[in-house]
Amino acid sequence: xxxxFIILIVIIALVGCSDNSKxxxxxxxxxxxxxxxxxxxxxxxETITQYEESAQFVYELLKTGQFNxxxxxxxxxxxxxINLTLEEIDILADTILTNMQEDMDWYNSEINKxxxxxxxxxxxRFGVTEDEYNLVMDMSEQIELVxxxxxxxxxxxxxxxxxxxxxxxxxxxxxVGIDLVNNKILTxxxxxxxxxxxxxxxxxxxxxxxxxxxxxxxxSTHDFQYIFTDLNICIGKLVETGETLIYNHAGVVxxxxxxxxxxxxxxxEGNQK
Length: 273
Prior knowledge:
The protein has 5 helices and 10 strands. The protein is an alpha+beta fold. The protein has 2 domains: 21-75 and 144-268, Lipocalin (Beta Barrel); 76-142, no CATH class. A 10-stranded antiparallel barrel has the order 1-2-3-4-5-6-7-8-9-10. The protein is elongated and about 60 Å long. It starts with a helix and ends in a 5-residue tail after the last strand.
C-alpha cells in the first residue's frame, strides 16, 4: 500500500527504526543457495575483540540453536468512523505522493524545515483537500504490528560466520549469512554493507524500544523476477522483554514501475533450548 510509503515520505516514524539523523522504513529475510554461505576472506580473525561494534553485538546476541519465531507485519486498521476503504485512502496517498514528486524543489525546501518526527503541513499542491490530507496522515496512528504466522529459525556459528536459516516460513528472505570479520550480511540478492546503529528511542512505538544495527543492499547484484531498489536488514534486542528482532525491509519495483514497500519483523526469544 502506498499509504505506508507516503507516511514515511512526510517524516512520520512508523516502526521507529531510526537514529538521530536518519529514519528507517519497514521488513522479509533473503534466500541463499546453501545453509553455510561462503564468506569473504579479506581479513583474518585473530580474537573476538577485533570485531567491529556491530558485529560484536550480533555475535553476542545470536545464540546457536533452533528457535520458535513470530513473524509480524505492519497492517493498517482504519478507524470505525471513516467511510472510505483502504483502497480509496491508498488512492489519496498516491495522489499526494505523485504531486510531491512533481515539485521536488518545493518538497525538499519544506522537508528541511521539519524536526525529526514532524509531518509536512497541508499545502494545496498535494492535490487533495486538507481533510483528505489529514486523513492520510492520521492513518499513521492506525498501523499495528500483526502476527501473520509462526515459524522456526536455525542459527549456526562457525569461525567468525553466522548462518540464519528460516524453516517453512514462506517469507521472501529465508537464508542469510553474517560475515562478522568483514561486517557484511550475505544474501542471494547481494551483499548488505553496514549502514548504521539503532538506539532505543520513543519513536519505536509499534515494536517497543530496541537497540541494534542495520545493513543495507542499495542495488541487487542478481537478476530476479522482481527488482529490488533497496534491501535493509536490522538485527536488535527489545529493551523491555530482551527478545531478539530481525527487521527486514525491501523496496520492490512491480510490473508498472511502481515501488512497493515490503516489510516484516521476526521476533524470538534468543535463549530457547
